[in-house]
Design a protein that fits this description.
The chain is α/β, with parallel strands linked by helices. Helices cover about 40% and strands about 20% of the residues. The protein folds into 2 domains: about 5-120, Response regulator (Rossmann fold); about 130-225, Orthogonal Bundle (Arc Repressor Mutant, subunit A), CATH 1.10.10. It has 8 helices and 12 strands. The protein has a 5-stranded parallel beta sheet, sandwiched between helices. Strands 6-7-8-9 form a 4-stranded antiparallel beta sheet, covered by helices on one side.
């Protein structure tokens, strides 16, 4: 049984009820808050394993709530919102959200993303060798193998891949990747990222034109997924 505790911060009673039924039927412990104030107080007094946060709250902007949570809360936060603009999605992800799902949503996709976020959080301190089907990455030795054969990566390619692996399942924005790999002065140099993503896909994907590992989130960034 999962028994992971999830806090829902959403002002829509129907959404809260739907999420409660869906999550409880999948063995999650559910707590709910209808306002930003209630959610922040509950999160501080009973820190959950994950938070599902709506951006359109009645008493405070959800982006502001996200920033306040990220001052101390380190577990996954998923945004669940009707706001679907690229600007809102990128802003939320850059401010520390692990994922962003637009309403209306499919419950199967919601559950899959929750599992991915919780799995990533639970394995942060696990052994440094990770395996995905035919791909093996040793984060301590800084080596990569595909079909048991060494894959030669440049230092930048490896840094980019390791960042993806450490954030498996999360959407990483263009700005975040550029800042983390190349530095703050490169956050507008998207051509750097496109070139290195293409090179990395050629080395780790079975078909670089139909990637299974590094998936494009159109207009936002990339997500590293486990195809298995």
């Amino acid at each position: 049984m999962n028994k992971a505790a999830i806090l829902i911060i959403d002002d829509e009673a129907q959404i809260r009820k739907l999420l409660e039924i869906t999550l409880q039927s999948n063995d999650y412990v559910v707590n709910k808050a209808a306002t930003a104030k209630e959610g922040l107080i509950f999160a501080a007094s009973h820190p959950p394993d994950m938070i599902i946060l709506d951006l359109g709250l009645p008493d405070e902007d959800g982006h502001s709530v996200l920033k306040k949570l990220r001052e101390w809360y380190t577990n996954p936060i998923m945004i669940l919102s009707v706001q679907s603009s690229e600007e809102d999605i990128i802003r939320a992800l850059d401010n520390g959200a692990n994922d962003y799902l637009i309403k209306p949503f499919r419950t199967g996709e919601l559950l899959a993303r929750i599992r991915s976020a919780l799995r990533t959080a639970a394995t942060e301190d696990s052994p440094p060798v990770v395996t995905y089907n035919d791909l093996e990455i040793d984060l301590m030795a800084r080596t990569v193998k595909k079909n048991h054969e060494p894959v030669k990566l440049t230092a930048t390619e490896y840094t980019l891949l390791a960042l993806f692996v450490k954030n498996e399942g999360m959407v990483l924005t263009h700005h975040y990747l550029l800042r983390e790999v190349w530095g703050p002065g490169y956050i507008n140099q998207s051509q750097y990222l496109r070139v290195f993503i293409a090179q990395l896909r050629k080395k780790i994907e079975n078909d670089p034109n139909r990637p299974e590992y590094i998936v494009t989130e159109s207009g936002v960034g990339y997500r590293f997924v486990n195809p298995g």
